[in-house]
Design goal:
Helix content: 25-40%
Distance between the termini: 34 Å
Strand order of the largest sheet: 1-4-5-6-7-8-9-10-11-12-13-14-15-16
Largest sheet: 14 strands, antiparallel, barrel
Number of strands: 16
CATH class of the largest domain: Mainly Beta
Radius of gyration: 32 Å
Number of domains: 2
């Protein structure tokens, strides 16, 4: 609070103004009102001189009152705009100050003093993102050390304010249609060699057990609410429901519901979040899977906007139609996200494992590790496009009784897509993906291609 009070009470860089500034502010004020009679011009010149004296003496209320009366005549004159802006910002007339300093920056973008005062005005207006951009441009102009110190204080205060929490409600509805070449992630083999009662048999697969292609429709509803508890802590609620209906067969229609409650807080530059999640899945309108999990997340924000992330998810999955099939799942994710620019990228290391609750199900337990890389490129003012690559290697803990060797998988995924926002609420998207899983078990080797087109409404 002391730092903030100091920033609010002391003008930015006034005591360490860039040398040569006064000389650059010499514009012939009389030229702007050459149509005014000589006597009136003399009075106006006297008023401008009085304004300069008032600003120099930091008598800002009187200076603003005088400048406001002269604004109609002298707006656009560099000397007047600077004095008007200084008087306005120091008397908390921030909108007037904003207009004055914006005119100055447009006319002389290389002048660091103008840009610094514009940034300070944005700060007082709580336009924190714009203030940060302008302050960083000031630093890029390599001003004197005292200016750098003052600007740095503002940037630190902006960061503190950005950590404060505001109430927020979010709703999104996504409607999509697409085509999936393998909706059941199955093999395209006609028959498989399986060990049944210690006898090796060649079993013919029916159509439902083989690779099935289908077009589909999907719907997703996403509700979210965040509420502050203190200046730097909050709780949040999320509820998500999704449905996917296939045109080819009902066997693999999916309904998924998820509810999550979280608590977030900041410690320095690190944002922490803990959450509890419950997920319920129906396959062909019948209960298939439910999962309860605990989540811990942390995000370390670097000064330039890049971010390190860590996520730990520990959960229990159960299959109602298979009491012995329960698994305890642990997933860890370490990531780095570049600073938000025209092109942004993210790299994440993923590793974890599934542990069987019953010994009889040990062949479904596994360990895995891999990585994800994603790159997003802004496309004009409203669009973006992306591509991603994911690779995961898995090894299972025991041999499946129907097989004669340990299962090992190598799964790869390549995805590309684009987004375009018609407005802040409506976005259209188009996504493509190719995936291939190579397994030591023929039954678990498959390929899959998917294309999807969707429309999202959110607020």
């Amino acid at each position: 609070m002391k730092k903030l009070a100091l920033l609010l009470l002391s003008p930015l860089i006034i005591l360490v103004a860039l040398k040569g500034h006064t000389a650059e502010l010499t514009t012939d004020a009389a030229a702007s009102n050459s149509q005014v009679p000589a006597a009136e011009q003399k009075k106006n010149k006297a008023r401008l001189e009085a304004l300069a004296v008032l600003v120099k003496r930091k008598q800002y209320p009187q200076a603003f009152s005088l400048a406001d009366r002269l604004a109609q005549l002298y707006e656009g004159d560099a000397t007047f705009d600077f004095q008007y802006g200084m008087a306005a910002v120091e008397t908390r007339h921030y909108d007037e100050a904003l207009f004055a300093f914006e005119r100055l920056v447009i006319g002389a973008p290389e002048q660091a003093r103008y840009r610094a005062e514009l940034a300070r005005t944005h700060f007082y207006l709580q336009n924190l993102v714009r203030a940060k951009i302008e302050f960083e441009k000031v630093l890029a102009q390599k001003p004197p050390a005292a200016v750098v110190l003052n600007v740095t204080k503002f940037l630190e205060q902006i960061e503190d304010l950005q950590h404060s929490v505001q109430p927020r409600f979010m709703f999104a509805m996504d409607m999509a249609g697409g085509f999936d070449s393998n909706i059941n992630s199955a093999t395209d083999e006609l028959a498989l060699d399986l060990i049944i009662d210690d006898v090796l048999l060649n079993v013919t697969l029916n159509d439902d057990s083989r690779e099935t292609a289908s077009s589909y429709w999907s719907t997703l509803l996403n509700f979210g609410y965040l509420s502050p508890l203190t200046k730097t802590s909050s709780y949040d609620l999320r509820v998500i429901y999704s449905n996917r209906t296939n045109s080819e067969t009902e066997l693999y229609n999916l309904d998924t519901a998820m509810a999550e409650v979280g608590f977030s807080f900041f410690t320095g530059r690190i944002r922490w979040r803990t959450a509890g999640r419950y997920q319920y899945v129906q396959l062909n309108s019948e209960e298939f899977l439910n999962t309860t999990s605990a989540i811990v997340q942390s995000q370390y924000l670097l000064r330039r906007g890049a971010m390190y992330g860590f996520t730990m998810n520990i959960g229990q999955s159960s299959y109602p139609d298979n009491p012995d099939g329960d698994l305890t799942q642990q997933t860890y994710n370490l990531s780095y996200t570049s600073a938000p620019k025209k092109r942004t990228w993210m790299f994440a290391l993923i590793f974890g494992g599934d542990t069987a609750s019953e010994t009889i199900n040990e062949y479904n337990a596994k360990s895995y590790q891999g990585f994800t890389y994603q790159s997003t490129y802004l496309w004009g003012q409203r669009g973006s496009r992306y591509w991603l690559f994911n690779l995961i290697a898995s090894e299972y803990d025991a041999i499946n009784p129907t097989q004669d060797e340990i299962r090992k998988d190598l799964a790869t995924l390549l995805g590309v897509g684009w987004r375009y926002a018609f407005s802040s609420s409506f976005t259209v998207r188009n996504d493509y993906s190719l995936s291939y899983t190579d397994s030591t078990i023929v039954a678990n080797t498959y390929k899959r291609a998917k294309v999807e087109f969707g429309l999202t409404y959110s607020f």
